[in-house]
Input
Amino acid sequence: MSVKEIFDHHRYRIPLYQRAYSWTAAEIHTLLADVRDARLDAATRRARRGSRDYYIGSLVVDAMHSDEGTLLEVVDGQQRLTTLFIILSLTGPGTGNEDPQFTGALTFEGRDAAAEDLRRLARDGAGSINRLTTPGIRLAAELVEQAVSRGAHLDPTNADLVDSVAFSSEDATYLREHVKILQTALPSGTDLNHYFEVMNTRGEQLEKHEILKANMIRALPHTMEQAAFSAIWDACSVLERHVQTQFSPTQKPEGATSERTMLFGSGWNTFRPESADELFDHVQAMLAGDDTSTSNEPLPTPHGSEQRILLADVLTASDSQEDSRAGGDPDQESGSYGSIIDFPNLLLHVLRIQRRETFTWEDPRDGAELRVRLEDKYLLSEFDRSMLASRHLDDASRRAEVREFAYLLLKTRYLLDTYVIRTQLTAGGDDEENWVLHRALRYPAPPAKTAQLSARATFRTGQSTGSDENTNRDQVHRQVLMLQAMFQVSDTRRASKYFLFQILEWLHQQEAPSAVDGESFVKKLETMARSRLRALDFTAVMNDGTHVPNFLFNVLDYELWRLAEVADGSELTHVLPHPNLVAGLTEASPTFRFRYRTSVEHYYPVQPSSEQGHRRLDPSDGNHFGNLCLMSRSENARRNNLMPIAKAREFQPARQSLKFQLMSALALEAHDWAEEQIHAHGSAMLRVMQNAADTPVAVC
Output
C-alpha cells in the first residue's frame, strides 16, 4: 500500500509491550532524505522505465475485531509508522489535517501523553509543536517541520548546497502517492511471544557490500588471486583501528619479512605498494606462507553453474587463516576509533576515485547521471552501472579493473587512517566529539621484546601522541584537525560526504602518500571551506533566521578561531576593531572545539514572555544573523525562551560556539541585547566571513 492508503480507513494502535517512540535525528533525516532522493531519482531515471514507486519496508499487524470495527495492533514497524504519521500531520493541507479519520488513525496503548500528542499534531499541525509533551515525538515533529520549512524556501537552482535535510511539497506528494509499504496481517491466533522470538533470532541479512564483494571476485580466475582480494577487502572493512593491525607483524618463517612490513615498511607507517600487481604479489605471497595447499590454477567451473566449494573446507580455511592473520602479537595502538564514514560509503568514494571524478561546491549533486552518487543505498546500482560501461572489455581487462579497485581501496584506507579525523574514547566514556588525527607507526621495542604498533599525532614531531586538543605546539596539526571537524559537524551523515571525497581525491594526487605536507593540506582545506562559503551566496541567506545553513555558523567559528590562534594580531583587530571582542575571542579560542551543534537558536527569543514585560522584536531584527547562533538541540529545547542575559549566565561558555561566546560577552557588557547590539554584532561577523570569501584561492 502507498503511505496514503496505509492511513485511509485503518486504525492502528501501538501496544503497551512495544517500546516508546525513540527514533533520533539520524533515522528521521535518513527517511526524509531517502524519500526526497527517490522522488528526484524517479524524475530523472525511473520515469523512463515506467515505475516511480519506492519501497521502504514492511509493517506487521495483528487484527483486533470488535463492535467498533477493526483495530490493527502494530507488531513490527511502529517506529517507521509513527514517523510517517508525524510527516503527514505536518505536510497536510492548511496548518493541520481536518480529516477526523486521520486524526484518530494512530494511537498508543497505555501512553496517554503520547496518544494526545499525535492527536494534537494531526489536528493542529505545526502550530501544536510547542505544546507537545512527549520528548521523542516533539523532537521528530521539530525535525520534520524544519525540513519542511527548508523545502518551502529552497532555491531549485541551488538545492544541492543545503547542508541540512529539506523536504518540499513535491516530496510530500511523492511520499503519499508513491512510497510503498508491505503490510502483513498475522494469521488469527498467532502466538505473539513465539513470533517475537523468531523475529529477534532470525540472524542478519546479507549486506550489500558482501554481495558486491562476491560479484567482484567473479572477475578473478585464480583461487590465490581471489583469496588475496578477499584478504584486502576484509582488512579494509575494519574501520575501528588502523588498517595495519589487520596484517600480522610476525615473521613466518623466522627471518622472513612480515605481512605488515611487506605492505607498510619497516616503520609500519608508509604505504609501499606502487601498483595493483605489486600489491597482489605481496598478499598472495603472504597467503602462500599461510596455506601451501592453495593453487594459482583456475578453478573448474562447469558450464551453466557457479563455482562450488565444500562448506567444511570453508570453515577449516577460515579458522586457520584467522589464526594466522592475528599473529598472536598484541599491538599497543589504542583500538576503538570512531570513523566518520562507514565501509559501504567508503567503497563509493573509492569507485569515484577510480573513475577519476572530481567535485567542486559549484557542481550539481542531484540527478548527475554520469557521476557516482555517494549514497550507500545506491551501492550495488552504482557498481553495476560502472561495470556495465566496461562490459565490452575482455576478461583480462575486467580482471585488471577489479585488481586496481583493490589497490585503490587499500591505499584509500591508509590515507583515511593517516590524514582524516576520527573520534577516540576518552577515560570518561564514549565521546563522539573527541576528534583525533593519528598516524600508525612502529613503536621501538627494548631488546628481547616484540615491536608493537603505536600511534602519534599525524603532523606533530616526536613520538608521543600527546593531546589533539588545547595546544599550540604544532599549529599545522591543529589547523588540519579543526578544519576537518568543522566540515564533519556540518555534514553529519555518513553518506554524501563530498568534503571527504575532496580530501581523499587530493591525497591520492600527492606524490608521497606517506609524507603529505601539512601546510599544503591546510591550504587545500581552507580553499574548500572558502569555496563552499562563496557558493552558498552567504550574504543572501545569512539573515533567514532558522533557515540559515549550519555550515555558515561553523565556517565562521573556524575563521574566528584562526584569527585568534593562527593569524597575527593586526588581522584580528582589522576585522574585529572592538577591543572587547578581540579580548574575548583570544580568551575563548584556546579551549574551543567543534561539537554537534545542530539547532539554530535565536539569542533574543522569537516569542519572549509577555507576562514578564518582554517585548517582541520585529522579524527582520529577530532573524538577523547577529541574533543567531548554533546550539545543541537539547540545549535549545530546554532554554529556547530564556532572555539573552539569562542565557549568557546559564550556559557553560567553554561548550558553546565562539559566536555565542562573543554575543554573551557583548550582552553582559551592555547589560542589554537589543537591535543596536544585534546589528553591531552581525556587521562584525559579516566582515569576518567577507574577509574569508575575498581571500584568493590557494594553489594546493
Remarks:
- The longest strand covers residues 54-66.
- The radius of gyration is 28 Å.
